[in-house]
Design goal:
The chain contains nine helices and ten strands. The chain is of the alpha/beta class. It folds into two domains: 174 residues, Rossmann fold, CATH 3.40.50; 104 residues, Rossmann fold (3-Layer(aba) Sandwich), CATH 3.40.50.
């Protein structure tokens, strides 16, 4: 159930977890660079996980291309690469524990029904099926056309983000009871991410601020499983000239390994760590970055 992980008794552990729906783009590189340097400057470990949980979204060959890109940019990860597609038994076991803790129930509501009941906030579940209190059997198939939802224990969730400051969320109005296993049998992202971060013994999660809300759902699951969530830091996002966040959905171009020095330098400038112009190699650039990295400067727009 538990992936091989470095000893955490003395060193922090960070991770990078791309989805193989395409190659890495500049936004991905920023997240990888920030998490990598945060781990390395603390003499910590940096783990790599491929979040290939959602089969229909996985692009053939994308996982291999992501590994090739990371190697081409000089990233070195600790331990084996973890693939979520090989972790289904761990997710089933986690569901069983959450179920025994009274945190799960079966939901047969469709997206159409949610839009009809609450057109202003169709993404926020209204608790319609909660009263049924049907405890699913984690060893069995989900009832036809039904999902499993997780009910957080607390009405308010909070944590201190290293870059964004104190964060708080009202569960009933901002998160609701969220899906941990979909009606099509696919495990929910929040469940898989929480379970894997626990198994990998992750202590530091540095990623883009578009995932800030996701942290609340994931820490709620971790707490219900009896684990302390990692330290979170959510950095600003890169965007294209139209102001749209760089992503595979917005067709952000893939980073090129033959331009690694220039592109990584640009990523460091975006993270407010502009390297000196005399640096000529990737090795020199990484050495400089590790020696000068300060996580707290990442969202500081004051120039050096």
């Amino acid at each position: 159930m538990t992936p091989s992980a470095p000893d955490t008794t003395t060193r922090p552990i960070g991770r990078f977890a791309p989805t193989p729906s395409g190659p890495l783009h500049f936004g991905s590189l920023i997240a990888a660079t920030a998490s990598y340097l945060n781990a390395r400057t603390q003499n910590g470990h940096w783990r790599l996980r491929i979040d290939d949980l959602d089969g229909p979204r996985v692009v053939t060959g994308a996982s291999e291309e992501i590994l090739r890109q990371l190697r081409g940019y000089g990233f070195v990860w600790d331990g084996p690469v973890v693939y979520q597609s090989e972790r289904f038994d761990a997710y089933r076991q986690a569901l069983a524990r959450l179920n025994s803790n009274g945190r799960l129930y079966v939901c047969a509501c469709s997206r159409k029904q949610l839009r009809q009941r609450q057109p202003q906030t169709p993404w926020l579940y209204d608790g319609f099926c909660r009263h049924q209190a049907v405890a699913p059997d984690p060893t069995a198939m989900t009832p036809e056309k039904s999902a499993w939802r997780f009910r957080p224990e607390r009405e308010t969730l909070s944590f201190d983000d290293v870059l964004q400051g104190p964060q708080s969320l009202d569960v009933p109005t901002e998160l609701g009871d969220f899906v941990v296993k979909r009606a099509d049998g696919i495990f929910g992202y929040h469940l898989a991410c929480a379970v894997d971060d626990i198994a990998m013994q992750v202590t530091e999660v540095v990623r883009g601020e578009d995932l800030l809300t996701s942290s609340f759902a994931q820490l709620a699951i971790m707490q219900s499983l009896g684990h302390t969530p990692p330290r979170y830091a959510h950095h600003a996002l890169a965007s294209n000239p139209e102001g749209i966040k760089l992503s595979k959905k917005s067709r952000a171009p893939a980073i090129r390994t033959d331009q690694a020095l220039a592109t990584l330098s640009e990523a460091l400038r975006f993270l407010h760590h502009p390297p000196p112009s005399e640096i000529q190699t990737l090795t020199q650039l990484w050495d400089w970055a590790i020696n000068h990295w300060q996580l707290e400067r990442v969202n500081n727009h004051q120039a050096w």
